[in-house]
């Protein structure tokens, strides 16, 4: 279902929807971020009949424009009057609430991140295995999103799906007075949401369910708001009703609203008003149980970073077996100093998946050997398929099948250890560790991005387990797009600059931030 519009917006949508496919000669202009199609050679009677047939909103402003047109005004005059009507006439003024673009806090702000398995008595390999198990459904979701978009199958696209869940939780507060709101951090989706009363169906969460009636800053968004229009699916009934699906029967459904969100550590908190979010009254599926909801950090208009108008954000992930928290930085704190030795690569855009952060990966080396793989292996296809995304919610990296086969072959050839073929770990490449050995020499692994080469620390791709006597490569094969996972990002400050459209990698001791 497409977002509905209010009566006062009919003049801003009608010409687009009604006349777009009716005529050949059109002139396009952008007014109030809405694409209008104004037809120079369409007569008044035809235009009026089409408008009245297609919309029940016979609004006075449209009829005013029609009347002026009927009286012989030129096309240029019509455009001018149309603009004036939109901006001046109170009966046709836009009812859409402008998305709140907040001035970044002068010092930026910091949010602590906690891995979903923190506090559990698990080895590093066990943590990776747990993450991989959770990541299977996520990988399926991500690939399903791309396949649905690239297939141009309208039946698939009617119910858009999103990445969902994740591996890191962020602590923040919502409402006035503020209530604790642990949320899944997800760079693969956009919508911010939390479970809300009254719940028709809600999963068990670690904190009390948010009650909007107890918050003085809660406000429902209208169907004609910009954020409602940005939803992939919505209906209009007592405000903007949304449905957001995650592709494996996980979903959230509720009302789109604005609230005050509070970020930062105690003693250094920042409150930001009017952040658009989903107040979910029907929430189903796996992967959310440790959180009250989800915070999307994708590139789309519904995400936190887009609403704040922050030009950049960074995160720095501590190793999985480190008890110290990771960190998310927004605003000026997210800046990477130009004197620091960061690897910076341009972000790519995929029109079919505008929320994803696509990387410019050109190749991979094992040791001093650059893998012999096709140049197009990591490129985005014309239909939006393929490519490489960076994702905080996927545990290990998944590489296109042919590239992974070459990587596996070269890694085995250069690693002077017997291969373990038991498959007990769930990872594709494992080696048997010699008894009594504490140091094992393994080949270096380098990702060649456009703009620079990123050599990973050994602990970011080889996971050893002395109990099992194995060491495994924390990577796997993908039949669709490739994913640069969070194990490979540990102890690296990953800076997303949405203004420059770049991502930077800076080796950092994340527990020191």
From TrEMBL:
| GO molecular function list | aspartic-type endopeptidase activity
Q: Where is the active site?
A: 186, 391
Extract the CDD domains matched here: pepsin_A_like_plant
Q: Keywords in UniProt for this one?
A: Aspartyl protease, Glycoprotein, Hydrolase, Membrane, Protease, Signal, Transmembrane, Transmembrane helix
Transmembrane feature ranges: 68-88
The record's GO CC annotations read: extracellular region
Is Membrane included in the keywords of this UniProt record?
yes
Give the source's domain of life in one word: Eukaryota
Fetch the InterPro entries from UniProt.
Answer: Aspartic_peptidase_A1, Aspartic_peptidase_AS, Pepsin-like_plant, PEPTIDASE_A1, Peptidase_aspartic_dom_sf, Plant_Aspart_Prot_A1, TAXi_C, TAXi_N
Output the GO biological process annotations, alphabetical, semicolon-separated. Answer: proteolysis
One Pfam family per UniProt: TAXi_N
Presence of keyword Protein transport: no
Domain Peptidase A1, first and last residues per copy: 168-506
Q: Which family does it belong to?
A: Belongs to the peptidase A1 family.
Q: What is this protein called?
A: Peptidase A1 domain-containing protein
């Amino acid at each position: 279902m497409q977002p509905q519009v209010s009566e006062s917006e009919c003049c801003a949508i009608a010409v687009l929807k009604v006349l777009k496919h009716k005529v050949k000669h059109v002139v396009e202009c952008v007014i109030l971020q809405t694409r209008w199609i104004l037809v120079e050679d369409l007569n008044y009677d035809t235009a009026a009949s089409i408008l009245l047939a297609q919309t029940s909103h016979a609004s006075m402003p449209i009829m005013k424009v029609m009347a002026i047109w009927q009286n012989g005004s030129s096309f240029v005059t019509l455009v001018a009057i149309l603009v004036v009507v939109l901006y001046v006439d109170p009966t046709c003024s836009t009812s859409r609430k402008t998305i709140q673009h907040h001035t970044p806090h002068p010092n930026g702000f910091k949010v602590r991140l906690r891995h979903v398995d923190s506090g559990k008595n698990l080895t590093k390999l066990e943590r990776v295995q747990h993450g991989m198990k959770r990541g299977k459904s996520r990988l399926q979701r991500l690939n399903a999103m791309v396949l649905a978009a690239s297939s141009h199958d309208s039946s698939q696209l009617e119910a858009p799906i999103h990445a969902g869940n994740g591996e890191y939780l962020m602590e923040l507060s919502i409402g006035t007075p503020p209530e604790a709101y642990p949320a899944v951090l997800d760079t693969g989706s956009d919508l911010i949401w939390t479970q809300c009363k009254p719940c028709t169906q809600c999963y068990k969460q670690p904190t009390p369910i948010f009650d909007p009636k107890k918050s003085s800053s809660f406000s429902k968004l209208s169907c004609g708001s910009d954020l409602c229009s940005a939803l992939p699916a919505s209906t209009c009934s007592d405000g903007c009703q949304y449905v957001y699906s995650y592709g494996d029967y996980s979903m959230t459904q509720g009302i789109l609203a604005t609230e005050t969100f509070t970020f930062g550590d105690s003693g250094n908190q920042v409150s930001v008003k009017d952040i658009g979010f989903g107040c979910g009254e029907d929430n189903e599926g796996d992967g959310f149980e440790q959180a009250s909801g989800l915070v999307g950090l994708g590139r789309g208009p519904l995400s936190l970073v887009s609403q704040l108008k922050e030009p950049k954000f960074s995160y720095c992930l501590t190793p999985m077996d480190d008890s110290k928290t990771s960190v998310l930085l927004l605003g000026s704190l997210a800046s990477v100093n130009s004197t620091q030795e960061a690897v910076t690569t341009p972000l790519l855009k995929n029109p079919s998946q505008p929320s994803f952060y696509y990387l410019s990966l050109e190749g991979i080396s094992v040791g001093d050997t650059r893998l012999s793989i096709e140049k197009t292996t990591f490129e985005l296809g014309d239909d939006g398929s393929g490519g490489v995304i960076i994702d905080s919610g996927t545990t290990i990296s998944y590489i296109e099948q042919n590239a992974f086969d070459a990587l596996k072959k070269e890694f085995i050839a250069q690693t002077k250890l017997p291969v373990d073929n038991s498959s007990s770990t769930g990872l594709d490449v494992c080696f048997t560790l010699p008894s009594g050995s504490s140091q094992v020499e393994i080949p270096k692994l380098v990702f060649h991005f456009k703009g620079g080469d990123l050599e990973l620390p050994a602990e970011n791709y080889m996971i050893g387990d002395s109990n099992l006597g194995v060491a495994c490569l924390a990577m796997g094969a993908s039949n669709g797009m490739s994913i640069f996972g969070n194990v490979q990002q540990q102890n690296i400050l990953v800076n997303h600059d949405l203004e420059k459209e770049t991502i930077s990698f800076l080796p950092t001791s994340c527990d020191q931030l």
